[in-house]
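User: quick one, sequence for these C-alpha cells?
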C-alpha cells in the first residue's frame, strides 16, 4: 500500500559560526490553528504536487529560504501520523531537513510572527510535541553521521 501525505514538514538547521548545530523554530501567528506554538516549516501538499516540491515550496513561502541558501536538502525516515480533532481526521506528515548557510536570512510570511535559531537542547525544550523532539534528534544524527546520512540527501 502506498500512502500520500497531507503535509510536508521541513526542519531547517545551520552550523553557526561557533560550530554549534542550531535549529530554526518559527512561531505560529495569532488567529491560526495552534497559534503561538514553535514549530518547523509545515504546509499542505497540493494535489498533483511532488512531496519534495511541497517541502521546498513551503520552506521558501514560510521563511524566504531556498536556492543558494541551501547547503543540503535531505529526506528523513520520519512520517508522522496524528489526529486533528478540529477536522476529525488523521493527517500524515512527511518530514524533511534542510541545512542552510550560517548567514542565510530568514524572512517570515504572515503565517508566523517570530523565529529563533536555537541549540539542540533549547529547541527540544521549546517544541510542544514528542514527534518534534524525534525530528530534532534525527537532524542531530544526520550531522553526526555524514557518511550514513548521504543516502538521505536529495539535493
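Assistant:
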Amino acid at each position: 500500500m502506498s500512502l500520500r501525505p497531507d503535509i510536508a514538514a521541513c526542519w531547517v538547521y545551520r552550523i553557526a559560526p561557533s560550530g554549534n548545530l542550531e535549529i530554526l523554530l518559527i512561531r505560529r501567528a495569532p488567529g491560526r490553528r495552534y497559534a503561538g506554538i514553535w514549530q518547523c516549516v509545515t504546509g499542505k501538499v497540493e494535489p498533483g504536487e511532488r512531496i519534495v516540491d511541497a517541502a521546498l515550496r513551503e520552506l521558501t513561502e514560510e521563511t524566504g529560504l531556498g536556492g543558494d541558501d541551501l547547503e543540503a536538502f535531505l529526506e528523513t525516515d520520519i512520517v508522522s501520523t496524528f489526529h486533528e480533532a478540529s477536522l476529525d481526521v488523521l493527517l500524515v506528515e512527511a518530514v524533511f531537513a534542510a541545512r542552510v548557510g550560517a548567514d542565510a536570512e530568514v524572512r517570515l510570511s504572515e503565517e508566523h510572527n517570530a523565529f529563533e535559531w536555537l541549540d539542540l537542547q533549547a529547541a527540544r525544550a521549546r517544541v510542544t510535541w514528542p514527534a518534534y523532539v524525534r525530528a530534532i534528534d534525527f537532524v542531530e544524527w544526520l550531522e553526526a553521521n555524514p557518511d550514513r546520512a548521504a543516502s538521505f540527501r536529495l539535493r
